[in-house]
Structures are given as C-alpha cells and as structure tokens.
Write a structure and sequence with these properties.
CATH class of the largest domain: Alpha Beta
Number of domains: 2
CATH architecture of the largest domain: 3-Layer(aba) Sandwich
Number of strands: 11
Shape: globular
Distance between the termini: 55 Å
CATH superfamily of the largest domain: Thiamin diphosphate (ThDP)-binding fold, Pyr/PP domains
Largest sheet: 8 strands, mixed
Strand content: 15-25%
Helix content: 25-40%
Order of helices and strands: HEHEHEHHEHEHEEEEEHEHH
CATH topology of the largest domain: Rossmann fold
Structural class: alpha/beta
Radius of gyration: 22 Å
C-alpha cells in the first residue's frame, strides 16, 4: 500500500541507532544492508513495516531496522507475526528466523503459517549450523557434520526448506544467497509484492562455526554450480554452456553445443509439480543449486478471509460484547 504523502527514504532512514553485534565477516551484514537498501523502494512509511524474530544470531535483526519490531521467543516468531497481521492487516509483516529457530523448535509454527497462507514474509537465514550457541549441527546440516555435539558426524538427514514449504502448501517459495546482493534485493521485492505467505531461504555464511559452507555458490566458479531459475525462460547455466533437460520427471544436465534452447526445460513458477522437482535439486551431486523464485501462485490469504468473516458476523449479529460472551451458555453463581 503506497502513500502519496510518504517521505522519500534512503537506506540510512532504515538504519537504527543500535550497534550491530554480529561477528565480523558474518553473512548477516550483507542481508541487513540489502534489506535496508530495498525497503525504501516500496513507497511505504517506515511505520508500516514490522520485523518479528525468534532466537538466534539472525534474530537480532529487528534491533537494526528503524521500523517496528518484536524480538520474541524461540521458534514462535510466526505465531506472534500472525497476531500482528490479524490485528492490523495493513502492516507489512516480516519474520526473520534461522535454520535452527525456524525449522527445529519452530518447525510447527513455520509450517502452519505457510499452510494458512498468512500474509507474512519469512526470511530464513540458513547457515546450516547453530551459530549463537556455538556450533552444534542444525536441521539443515549435512550428514556427517562434525561438531562438538556430533564428534563422529551427524546422522540426521537434513531438512530441505523449499521442499518443506511446498509440502506445507506455501504460495511463494524462493531462494537466494547473502553475497548475491542484487539477486537478494530482487527476491525481497518479489516477496513484498506477493499477497500471501512467502518464504525466502537465504544461504548465509557463518564464518566462525561453518565457514565456506556455500563457497561453491559464491566462489569464482559459482556460475558452474548455480542456476538462476526465471519464469518462462529455459534453464541454462554455466554462462550458457550447459542446460537442464527433463526426461520424464528426471532432470539431466546437457551440453549446449549439442542441444538447442528448444530442448531445455522452461521454468514455470506456477507449476507445483515442477517446483517440487526443482526443490529436490538442493545439494544435488550433479545438478546445479537452484536460486530464484521456485514457486508463486495467488490464493486467498488467511488474514483477509478472517477480516471478511468477522465483518460478516458483525453485520449479521452486531458488534457483540465480551461480557455477553462470558455469560453465554451454562452459568452458575457461587455464593
């Protein structure tokens, strides 16, 4: 919702007066900077934005945004954010969480916020480690991850956040990387303009406890290992030298010297079956890592449907009183 009276903001207007307390070199700095830079482009007053976080390194985020914010409890940020959105549907509500906070103790809230299609923008900082509590393996850590908690290697099969979100019937699922700053900004913009629950998984480097976890997607040869999926465009990567072809439900990498663009898989972000296929390329031994908007469709939101339901009830029965509700049904008097 834009306002003709909205001041012209810059990045500095979204910077708070709090000292940023992340480890030097943390990927969170890049995410914060790009968020502060992108928010002014939405044409909204700062007071229209709310950032809600749980517990973890990522959850310091609301302190550093010059907007409204809540630093809530472990894993419960989506629940608090849902209350904020229902209470004031005109606000733009953002949830900032991590792979531990959002997918472990908060997995239930994460899943149901997306299932309900609550109009929240969830930013999942995934560094595949518990950073705040000093380096235990997380729900997204790879099998065999050696940490102080798993000295012989983790036995857990890692969660795939986009696949989990799609399984929960999310209407917007995207992935980006902390060092891909322009791409990160594009994903923030797409999420903001999506009317419904959105997930952006952000690969974020923890240089203290899990350094270079995503080096193959940020190093000099990153274009050989990453594919940026774009709606309506054929899937090419490695600077146009390789492509992805779909044979049945199986994706294969092909040499573009031997194939034309007509042979390639074309991305359709409204195709749920295709979204599931693409999400399963995560950490694939042969296929490139997908980033971009994996899935996006429009469906009624929980918050708008609730407002309509309340309005209909008031129109039919009047505004009602809390005391009348308490006195309804069977009551008795204690003398």
């Amino acid at each position: 919702m834009s306002d003709v009276n909205t001041p012209t903001y810059t990045k500095k207007d979204f910077e708070s007066d709090q000292s940023v307390r992340w480890c030097p070199g943390c990927g969170d700095y890049g995410i914060l900077a790009q968020t502060q830079k992108t928010m002014p482009t939405f044409g909204r007053k700062k007071e229209d934005f709310v950032f809600v976080s749980g517990i973890g390194c990522s959850s310091r985020f609301p302190y550093y945004m010059n907007a409204y914010g809540f630093h809530t409890i472990h894993g419960r940020a989506p629940a608090v954010a849902s209350g904020v959105k229902i209470a004031n549907p005109d606000l733009s509500v953002w949830v900032v969480t991590g792979d531990g906070d959002g997918l472990s103790i908060g997995g239930n809230h994460f899943m149901h916020a997306l299932r309900r299609n609550m109009d929240l923008n969830i930013l999942l900082f995934n560094n595949r480690i518990y950073g705040l509590t000093k380096g235990q393996y997380s729900p997204t850590s790879e099998v065999g991850k050696v940490t102080k908690a798993t000295p012989y290697g983790s036995l857990d099969i890692p969660l795939n956040p986009p696949s989990l979100a799609l399984g929960a019937q999310a209407t917007f699922v995207a992935r980006t990387i902390d060092r891909w700053q322009a791409h990160l900004s594009q994903m923030l913009e797409r999420s903001y303009h999506h009317d419904g629950g959105s997930l952006i998984e952000i690969y974020q480097n923890c240089n203290i406890f899990n350094d270079n976890a995503f080096e193959e997607y940020t190093s000099a040869d990153k274009f050989d290992n990453v594919i940026e999926v774009k709606h309506g465009e054929p899937m090419v990567f490695s600077k146009g030298t390789k492509g992805i072809k779909l044979e049945g439900f199986k994706a294969t990498v092909v040499d573009m010297e031997k194939h034309s663009l007509d042979d390639l898989l074309v991305h359709d972000e409204t195709n749920l079956d295709l979204a599931h296929i693409i999400a399963n390329w995560t950490s694939h031994p042969v296929l490139p890592e997908p980033i971009g908007v994996i899935y996006s469709v429009d469906k009624p939101t929980y918050n708008s449907e609730m407002v309509s339901q309340v309005d209909s009830a008031i129109k039919a029965k009047g505004p009602g009183k809390v005391q009348d509700l308490l006195n309804a049904g069977d009551i008795w008097t204690v003398k």
